[in-house]
Amino acid sequence: MEKPNHEQWSSKIGFILAAAGSAIGLGAIWKFPYMAGTNGGGVFFLIFILFTIFFGAPMLFAEFIIGRRTQKDAITAYKKLSPNTPWHLVGVIGVISSFVLLSFYSVVGGWILSYMVRSLTGDLSGLSNEQYGNLFSQIISNPWEVTITQLIFLIMTIAVVQGGIQNGIEKANKYMMPSLFILFIILVIRSVTLEGGMEGIKFFLMPDMHEITSKTFIMALGQSFFALSVGLSVMVTYGSYLSKTESLPRSVTSIVSLNIFISLLAGLAIFPAVFALGFEPDSGPSLVFIIFPAVFEHIAYGSVFFAIFMILLLFATLTSAFSILEIIVATIAKDDVGKRKKVAWISGILVFLLGIPAALSNGILADFKPLFNKTIFDLSDYFVSNIALPTGCLLIALFVGLKIPKAVLKEELLRSSSASTKLFTVWYWSIRYLVPIGIVIVFLHALGIIQV
Fold first, then answer.
1. In this predicted structure, what is the pLDDT of residue 2?
2. What contacts 193, CB < 8 A, 6 or more positions away?
3. What is the largest CA-CA distance in the chain?
4. More confident residue, 194 or 87
5. Averaged over 336-357, what is the pLDDT?
6. C-alpha span between 24 and 223 (Å, rounded)
7. CA–CA separation, 99 and 104 (whole Å)
8. S-S: 236 plus which of 29, 67, 204, 448, CB 3.0-4.6 Å?
9. Whose CA is closest to 161, among 67, 98, 113?
């Protein structure tokens, strides 16, 4: 029996928008375009779609099953399903990793705020390509600007999460996600109608099989996990607020479809414009902050469209930040609604303090490289993306496949659903065998053991 004060999503659409918002974030809008641009374009997108369906979706099912079955936070959920075992450490890893993730994720959120303000005031107009690069370096190296904007971003996140599931996260996503889609459609229409934009469309939507390499598969597989927010038990937390009457297959299908659709829109918004104006699609992580402003500078009313893009990027970044902070707050506050506001603020301030070294990593702490010749920012990113996330994915897959009885899994997956038992059979085989093998491959590549 779940506690009467255990919060729940008020509607299916509220849950889907929140979960999709968590998944989309920087993964789809910032990381996906430059990953596609540096790994073959259309062929990367095709393989990404296949891996999202056959690897990412099974992991999403797994986390939702754990959360909805127990109606508990990320640590207690594992304790409830496997008492008196160390499996709850999977949740501990997720919570600790979420602290680290949000500490540097909020720094990027601060950069986005800086760019958004400048785009709205017109300060980004009339710059040369070189000046855009210099501006980015200037912003991320300014200690006051990066810490203040990081703090503002976190305050925005805390303000929503403190309100709870229905009145905070769900309500914010119901406004932000539709706005995000509308803004995206506007950008896509402008981008694909540029003269010369067809080359970008071909690059993104017409797979060139000659571009396939082993690296393409590795990167697409890693992106499929990253893009759906699986591995840190974030979706265990969101799943715990899901009603027993909702269909998991329909929910997962909706979230995966939205994620792929947003990735499609991201590619159509960026690549036609990049090709039309003679830029290179393989510009890497700087695509959004250096290349994209330069692209818009060459478009009629470009400053307006770039401002729209930065607002869109801020919305997407915030919807992900809500879910990352929520796993922390839910774990500490448990089901005590009265504690939520206090826990949200304390947790948010701790994240801010933890993130200050990451914020200063491109400025006064640029030469401080404690491990692997990496700055604090890069080290935090490396820990989450290459160690914590694949480790969490592997442990969750093993936990679900080995520790939860098959009958329980089948009951939870098919509850309130018209899906056939064939779906369960395929999913069960995937989570026990296919997914762990894929995760191990990504993990070994991330550690440099497998070279491509």
1. 43
2. none
3. 64
4. 87
5. 93
6. 12
7. 9
8. 67
9. 98
Distance CA 30, CA 108 (A): 10
How far is it, in rounded angstroms, from Cα 266 to Cα 258?
12
And the tokens for 318? 């915030």
What CA–CA distance (Å, rounded) separates 135 from 82? 52
Q: How many CB atoms lie within 10 A of CB 339?
A: 14
In one-letter notation, the amino acid at residue 81 is: L
Question: In this structure, are residues 389 and 225 in contact, taking their beta carbons and an 8 Å threshold?
Answer: yes
The span from the CA of 230 to the CA of 390, in Å, is: 9
Single out the residue of 303, 294, 234 nearest to residue 270, CA to CA: 294
Sequence-distant (≥ 6) Cβ neighbours of residue 138 within 8 angstroms: none
pLDDT-derived band at 94, boundaries 50, 70, 90: very high
> What is residue 176's predicted lDDT score, i.e. its pLDDT?
81
The pLDDT score that the predictor gives to residue 449 is 75
Region 100-128 average pLDDT: 89
Q: Could you give phi then psi for residue 360, rounded to 5 degrees?
A: -90, 5
Structural domains for the chain = 12-349+378-446 (1.10.4160.10)
